[in-house]
Amino acid sequence: MDTSGISRKMLPTDLIRFKQQGNLITVLTAWDSLSAAIVEEAGADVVLVGDSLGMVVLGHATTLPVTLEQILHHTQAVERGFNSPVKSQPLVVCDLPFLSYQCGEDKAVAAAGSLLKNSSAAAVKIEGAEPEILAVIERLVRMGIPVMGHLGLTPQSVHRLGYRLQAKDKPSQMKLISQAIELEKAGCFGIVLEHIPGEVASQLRHQLKVPVIGIGAGEDCDGQVRVTADLLGLSSKQPPFSPPLIPGRQLCIDALQSWIKQQHLQAKNPTKEASEQKPDY
Q1: Total structural domains within the chain
Q2: β-strand 147-152 against 25-29: which pairing, if any?
Q3: Which conformational region is residue 154 in: left (phi greater than 0), alpha (psi within -120 to 50 degrees), or beta?
């Protein structure tokens, strides 16, 4: 039987093939069924259920309060928002939230395993490349759990790094490059580089076999990831490396204000037909 035309669900390792073929990888975040349906229809290759939902959806000042249960809850909602057949859906990657992997390999395996077991997620994303983190990544990969790395501005380290450009001097750039190489050796199928100089990301793109996914890391990357709310202009504070494509927040406010004003006008000047209209119940 000829199976050449049969598609299958995307695997994390397919992103490496994308890199080899020179295909740009697009990654967008989603946090519920509505945002998932939008980014899926837009054509994103990867949907990231990031702990950024803590700030975008839950109103926290940082990503630190996000729990594993909340990540699972929102991932399941994202899964329900997809409309295409399973084999055609984007790859779903989940952030492992703060303290779900920093406390040892066993806890990390249990956390990541529960996400993959109870949702459509096919991989997890982990921040950092300290020796303890590398050991966790190696263990997860051995257990069959695909891992995406994350270096540069790592939001879970906000109290140490802030939300500033990272790897600005030569020593810190050399350290980041060394860490990226270690992440590849540990088994990561891709690495997110956030808010670092573009020349560093470009160097790693050509040095690593796994794809480099940039966010505020220049254009010479194998792919780009963005917080969907930022691109749509829905965030109250926009990061400098992610300008909005549309003024979505103001468009929504204007549209809703127009509707509210219309309702008030109708209440003050009801038409004869409206006053005579009986309720349906």
Answers
A1: 1
A2: unpaired
A3: beta
Which CATH number fits the domain that encloses residue 99? 3.20.20.60
- pTM beyond 0.70: yes
DSSP symbols for 143-170: TT--EEEEEES-GGGHHHHTTS----SH
CB 222 within 8 A of CB 24: yes
Active-site positions? 194
> pLDDT tens digits, the chain, 281 residues: what are they?
333 333 567 899 999 999 999 999 999 999 999 999 999 999 999 999 999 999 999 999 999 999 999 999 999 999 999 999 988 999 999 999 999 999 999 999 999 999 999 999 999 999 999 999 999 999 999 999 999 999 999 999 999 999 999 999 999 999 999 999 999 999 999 999 999 999 999 999 999 999 999 999 999 999 999 999 999 999 888 888 999 999 999 999 999 999 999 999 988 887 655 555 555 65
- How far apart CA 233 and CA 171 sit, in angstroms, is 36
Yes or no: say if 25 and 46 are a contact pair by the CB < 8 Å rule. Answer: yes
Contacts of 251 (CB under 8 A, 6+ apart): 233
Q: Is residue 280 part of a domain?
A: no
Alpha-carbon gap, residue 201 to 182, rounded angstroms:
15
Q: Is residue 72 part of a domain?
A: yes
CB 69 within 8 A of CB 50: no
Look up residue 26 and give its DSSP letter. E
Which residue segment(s) compose the domain that 98 sits in?
A: 14-248
Is 109 a domain residue?
yes
Quick count: other Cβ atoms within 10 Å of Cβ 281? 3
Q: Is residue 279 part of a domain?
A: no
- Distance (Å, rounded) from C-alpha 28 to C-alpha 21? 21
